[in-house]
Design goal:
8-stranded antiparallel barrel; alpha+beta; 217 residues; 2 domains; 6 helices; Lipocalin
């Protein structure tokens, strides 16, 4: 009986989280539309507008302050995943970060042979928007990220063609990553340049290309 009860509770939690994600993603769509419509306005005004029109009313549905905080965190990071206009409001916080966004597809300056060398190494790192270093271990078709605060993310690594690879989200206890993705989310990355063990990579999200570098350790 306890086993059946546990299975039911796990199913209920999974269903509730699924419904919550759908509701939040629906809200991110509306917020993104609002940001597109008021592109000509000052960014501070745009942020105040989406806060007053969308975010505050949505959070008011939850009376518990802890729940409100968790919902806000999830909403904030799902906006980063679903809305390029929202991401553009937050420039790099550190000069060390080399993340950028552009509408034009980067030109390939890499050979198939250089691409094939990528998964021959198991240790990489990249720099986040904040300037923090994220260590990457590539082993047994798993892409594991270790963050400065001791948290981690685990994704399934799959090579797609000579210069592309796919990461499928499995789990994370990192604040941003666990709210950004849900289990099964897939991201397709393209290697387009290599120099001395530094790979330039892009990820396409709708019509926007996110560009950054992954460095071999």
């Amino acid at each position: 009986m306890k086993k059946y009860l546990l299975a039911f509770l796990l199913l209920f939690v999974h269903f509730s989280r699924s419904q919550s994600i759908k509701s939040i993603d629906s809200l991110t769509t509306e917020i993104c539309k609002s940001l597109v419509q008021n592109q000509a306005l000052d960014n501070e005004i745009r942020i105040n507008t989406i806060n007053n029109s969308h975010i505050t009313p949505y959070l008011a549905k939850f009376k518990d302050s802890i729940v409100q905080r968790r919902v806000f965190e999830q909403l904030f990071f799902r906006l980063h995943k679903n809305c390029n206009e929202f991401v553009a409001l937050f420039p790099n916080e550190s000069e060390k970060s080399n993340w950028s966004m552009q509408n034009e597809k980067p030109l390939d300056e890499i050979s198939r042979e250089e691409c094939n060398h990528f998964d021959e190494s198991s240790k990489y790192y990249y720099i986040e928007n904040s300037g923090a270093k994220v260590a990457v271990t590539l082993s047994d078709h798993l892409w594991t990220e270790n963050f400065n605060d001791g948290t981690f993310s685990k994704l399934r690594y799959k090579k797609k063609g000579s210069c592309e690879f796919e990461l499928e989200f499995i789990e994370s206890n990192n604040l941003s990553r666990k709210n950004l993705s849900i289990k099964g989310d897939k991201y397709l990355y393209h290697l387009y340049k290599e120099e001395n063990g530094t790979y330039n990579v892009y990820l396409k999200n709708k019509e926007t290309y996110y560009i950054f570098t992954i460095i071999r350790q």
